[in-house]
């Protein structure tokens, strides 16, 4: 599987684990919709040779009226194995045009990124006095994890969603501690030989002190121990320089649209 497709597969499979259902949507296809946080509403681009099938112009945007108010609709390049790349690009641009016409705005823009782990390279964690990373194992740990992430991202993470994943063998929920206080959070999800790093957050009071870099070094080391070949993530504009400095390479842009009230 191409690394671009592996990144999206890891991300969308995690959304499915959070809890989703299939719904009739636009472009004459079934869409996946989260039943709660993180409220994503998306096409399964992991399907082979998928490309947009646009409805007639008269009904091109009517399906958007049925999308829940809380929905976040992500748009990314079509990962198609056929020769219709130019058509797919045009149709993706048309979809974004329709979203804007229906008062949907890009609320979040992220860069998909990856790192290939080399067996001959040692990925050493940074030494930061009093800092350690431990797995979240209890309900109280999950509460700390959710509180950190909710503060860092300025939205409320559904605690029950994360608690349901605590015993999932394909997921590792991590907490970073500074002198015994939980200050950083991350979730690792393994699909095949690819490990996705998700929901990386640092408490506001501890930002700008080098803890984020130290935490990421520890997380990368954890991915090596978990025997991953590739690490993937989706970086915000603010976080991208840090990930680039750690060796991650840019892949493609993901734009997440939300309806304007």
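-> sequence recovered:
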């Amino acid at each position: 599987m191409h690394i671009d497709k592996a990144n999206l597969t890891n991300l969308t499979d995690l959304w499915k684990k959070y809890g989703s259902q299939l719904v009739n949507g636009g472009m004459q296809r079934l869409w996946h919709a989260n039943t709660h946080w993180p409220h994503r509403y998306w096409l399964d681009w992991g399907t082979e040779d998928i490309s947009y099938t646009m409805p007639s112009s008269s009904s091109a945007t009517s399906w958007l009226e049925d999308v829940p108010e809380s929905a976040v609709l992500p748009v990314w390049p079509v990962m198609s194995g056929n020769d219709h790349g130019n058509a797919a690009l045009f149709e993706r641009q048309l979809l974004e045009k329709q979203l804007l016409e229906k008062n949907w705005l890009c609320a979040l823009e992220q860069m998909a990124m990856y790192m290939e782990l080399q067996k001959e390279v040692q990925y050493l964690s940074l030494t930061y006095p009093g800092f350690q990373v431990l797995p979240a194992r209890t309900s109280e740990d999950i509460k700390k994890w959710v509180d950190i992430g909710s503060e860092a991202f300025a939205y409320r993470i559904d605690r029950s969603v994360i608690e349901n994943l605590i015993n999932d063998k394909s997921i590792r929920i991590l907490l970073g501690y500074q002198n015994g206080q939980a200050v950083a959070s991350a979730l690792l999800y393994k699909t095949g030989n690819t490990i996705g790093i998700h929901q990386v957050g640092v408490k506001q009071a501890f930002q700008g002190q080098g803890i984020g870099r130290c935490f990421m070094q520890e997380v990368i080391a954890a991915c090596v121990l978990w025997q991953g070949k590739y690490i993937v993530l989706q970086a915000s504009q603010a976080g991208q320089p840090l990930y680039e400095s750690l060796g991650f390479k840019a892949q493609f842009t993901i734009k997440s649209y939300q309806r304007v009230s």
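Residues 3-112 form one domain.
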